[in-house]
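Dear Dr. L.,

I hope this message finds you well. Following up on our conversation about the binding site, I have prepared a predicted three-dimensional model of the protein together with 6-O-phosphoryl inosine monophosphate. For your records, I am including the exact sequence and ligand specification that went into the calculation, followed by the structure tokens. Please feel free to forward this to your student if that is useful.
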Amino acid sequence: MSKSDVLLGLQWGDEGKGKIVDVLTPEYDIIARFQGGPNAGHTLEFNGIKHVLHTIPSGIFHPTAQNIVGNGVVIDPVIFKKEIDALLKLGVDVKTKLLISKRAHLILPTHRLIDAASEASKGKNKIGSTLKGIGPTYMDKTGRNGLRIGDIETKDFKEKYNTLVEKHKQILSFYNYEYNLQELEPAWFESIEALKSLQFIESEHFLNNALASGKKILAEGAQGSLLDIDFGSYPFVTSSNTVCSGACSGLGIAPNRIGNVIGIFKAYCTRVGSGPFPTELNDETGEKIRQIGREFGSTTGRARRTGWLDLPALKYAIMINGVTELMMMKADVLSDFDTLKVCTHYNYNGQVIDFLPYDIDTRYLTPIYQEVKGWNCDLTKITKKEEMPQALADYVKYIENAVKTPITIVSIGPDRTQTIKL
Ligand code: GDP
Ligand code: IMO
Ligand code: MG
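The resulting structure of the complex is given below.
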């Protein structure tokens, strides 16, 4: 009986999970997404191709791996169909390599409308949602009203759909929100038909049988730990458990079947959408990181907020997830700095603390920084760890010591090959 490894983001998302899953896929038989939905945008680059995946696992480009969309994921058929069509064009054999859990919930057009209506009603307190209908879909899941992939195959699917839509219409009238559902429904139902060409499975059986026969599974997370519904900066979070336990509930894999927990983080921090961000840089340094790092959302195109690395937040994410190894992304983006800053502690209501507290509102919590030497040289041509500049090797050691967890990969560019194994 083998174990499933889990790969997840330790910050506010967009750490580079897609790139690393693609790099690691040759070591695995199965790649399985466990939560989130098309709010995610996972970017892969290889052979000059840049591809962004939203719902489909990032192992899809490797000929050998089976890719599973787990029960914890929420699926928008329209976006899903677009993803499939793009992959078919690239010659990917989606029909045999992609399997979908019957227990995964469906995002309806009205979920997206409610997301937009809810955000509009919040005004300046809006979450900054990706407007993909994620929150309303998970609300219907926990409210026990949702529609699932398995429902598509039942005779009364349309009836179930209509019942849910009637409920949504009442919510939309509460918000006084104007919409035209007739414009949205045809594409949704066409996409549902297209989904039927894929295999719907009982993925918990599939995955546990795979483990029993010694197959290797990598569970792919979406978003990041600081966007987790329980442990993130609530209410400025997403609506699922992005942390490691989400892989258990989102795939049906028992906690004692989890092996390595791989935590991905950027050498600095970014956040897209609203909510507190202690180390945010609202100055030209922040702008420089945004431009060099091309920090614009993969899903929405929005400019990402940028800031220095936050060690108390990183330690918190390592603790909640039980991270066994770290991978540091986008080191190349910091190549043009003489010195870097790292947040080691916070000043929290007049007290110096070294952990992430309940409330990270920056009116009460300010970062305390330590300066470290930058490497100030181009990293993108480096191929092995021996070629790393000393200052980068020191930065890696410094973080490892601070968070007491080994860093096993340093990423120095978006391409598959720009990956240094330590
Ligand atoms: P994900 O959501 O965690 O998969 O990350 P995204 O794909 O949303 O955002 C990461 C962005 O950084 C993408 O545009 C990647 O192509 C890019 N990227 C990944 N790793 C590196 C790296 O080491 N250096 C640079 N410069 N870009 C990277
Ligand atoms: P990946 O998987 C970065 C953010 C949104 C918003 C909040 C809630 O690419 O790392 P939602 O649409 O989920 O209701 O939005 O969460 N968010 C992400 N930020 N990367 C993501 O995914 C995100 N998915 C959601 O910007 O602040
Ligand atoms: Mg992303």
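In brief: The first strand starts at residue 4 and ends at 9.

With kind regards,
A. P.
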